[in-house]
Specification:
alpha/beta; about 30% helix; four-stranded antiparallel sheet; 2 domains; Arylsulfatase, C-terminal domain; globular; Alkaline Phosphatase, subunit A; eight-stranded mixed sheet
């Protein structure tokens, strides 16, 4: 009988299937999520968590609506989706600018651009501004940053509070890596940052740390053969690059797990601005403040797993990010901040309260890179169901565009004529925003960019005088 079975064709077919199945299983990393399951009430207990680490991941140029977790039909972001699936996601988050330096200055200081004064190429964050990294350092955190975007370089004040603020040396780029953006002046890839972060964890995993990673490959449209899943148009390649960066983040999270750090690490994922693909006649960013360039993701993954994803549907802003995190950690707030803690919104999302909408602002000086040209601020004001795009230097109908943002997220149908009183009110809000007093530290200091800095910034694709 055994001999007949061995000699039969079915025996070899079954054996082949079992061998293929065994091989497939061998390629899958089988493990359990190291984080315990907890209710949303555990969020309130974060200040009592001993040795809580913080990993803050900033993905440059990432618009929210290109992530699966935000409803995108393509599977661009399995790692980020997993973070949102048992964590906290802010569904309607906006950045304060579509230009990195202006946006990041507002994010770190929790002040709007009109108050930071960081709106032009030569502006820097005042050394008198107290930054979150300084607050965390005083609370006993080892503060370490890795960056590749020259607009957040130390000369502009972004290193305040960091013991180490490092741009890693570019390693040789593998042949499988592709760069499709016309400007490819940033050497290396985000793998350099991930590898440097792993080196940091190897050395400092026994200390309480705050690790900030500023990733650039989505900005540079970098991807590899494995992430080339979505086509060859400019927009498709953007999606490919999101998939590539998402995988790199997965590598970092796996390293945290292997070191036994995942269940005592808070992970935050955010972006400084989005990217345009012709929605309002332009591609790229740093030119205007329409929704496609300022609608960004904000995801928080806790040291524990929530049984269901917690989604804050109420509007939020990047200027609220650090007031919220410092509040959740039980640390001192940022003095005089425009941003506020979103704890009430988080509580409401957990079914324990309600909140009212507040006015939100986004800002760009449309002449930010031209030193000899007078400032030309462009401001977006969002209040309730409406959004106004206001140009201080505009004339006539072009000066202010009103949209019913609640039902027209792409801002494709102007309603100026139908809502003249709303338009007038929103214009008054924009004017008042631009006229408000500077932050307590005064005017932003200005630095003289040398030739090397100018070359580095131009390599990113910007026109800077």
């Amino acid at each position: 009988m055994w001999k007949r079975l061995v000699n039969s064709r079915s025996f070899y077919a079954v054996a082949l299937v079992l061998m293929l199945l065994a091989f497939a299983l061998s390629q899958v990393r089988i493990g359990t999520n190291p984080r315990p399951l907890a209710s949303p009430d555990a969020i309130d207990q974060l200040p009592a968590t001993e040795d809580l680490n913080i990993v803050f991941i900033l993905i440059d140029t990432l618009r929210a609506d290109r992530l699966s977790a935000y409803g995108y039909e393509r599977e661009t972001s399995p790692t980020l989706d997993a973070l949102a699936a048992d964590g906290l996601r802010f569904a309607q988050n906006m950045s304060q600018s579509s230009w990195t330096k202006c946006s990041m200055a507002s994010m770190w200081t929790a002040h709007y651009p009109a108050r930071t004064g960081v709106t032009r190429s030569e502006d820097a964050i005042s050394p008198d501004a107290k930054m979150p990294a300084e607050i965390l350092q005083e609370a006993g955190y080892k503060t370490y940053a890795l960056w590749r975007n020259a607009w957040v370089g130390p000369s502009f004040g972004f290193s305040q509070g960091f013991e180490v603020y490092h741009s890693p040396r570019a390693s040789p780029v593998a042949p499988s890596i592709r760069r499709e953006k016309p400007t490819t002046g940033v050497a290396g890839t985000d793998w350099d940052i991930v590898q440097s972060a792993k080196d940091f964890l190897l050395t400092h995993s026994q200390e309480k740390f705050f690790l900030y990673l500023h990733l650039m490959d989505v900005h540079q449209y970098v991807y590899d053969e494995d992430s080339a899943l979505f086509g060859t148009t400019y927009s498709d390649i953007y999606d490919n690059s999101i998939r590539w960066v998402d995988r790199l983040i997965g590598v970092l999270i796996e390293d945290l797990e292997e070191r036994g750090l995942r269940d005592k690490t808070l992970i935050i994922v955010a972006s400084d601005h989005g990217e345009a693909f012709g929605e309002h006649g332009r591609e790229g960013h740093a030119r205007d403040v329409y929704s496609e360039v300022v609608t960004t993701p904000l995801i928080i993954s806790f040291p524990f797993r929530l049984p269901e994803p917690l989604v804050v549907e109420a509007p939020s802003e990047n200027v609220d990010l650090w007031p919220t995190l410092l509040d959740l950690l039980g640390l001192e707030p940022i003095e005089g901040a425009d941003g506020r803690s979103l704890r009430p919104e988080i509580t409401a999302a957990a079914g324990r309260g309600s909140v009212d909408d507040e006015v939100r602002f986004a800002h760009i000086d449309q002449s930010w890179g031209r030193k000899k040209v007078k400032s030309q601020p462009m401001v977006a004001v969002t209040e309730g169901p409406y959004r106004l795009v206001y140009r201080s230097a505009g004339r006539g109908a072009r000066r202010a565009e009103l949209y019913k943002y609640e039902s027209d997220r792409r801002e494709s149908r102007r309603i100026d004529a139908a809502e003249p009183e709303v338009r007038k009110h929103m214009m008054e809000l924009a004017s008042a925003y631009l006229e408000q007093e500077k932050a307590s530290w005064g005017d932003a200091p200005q630095i003289e960019l040398d030739d090397a800095q100018l070359q580095q910034l131009r390599a990113l694709g910007y026109e800077v005088e």
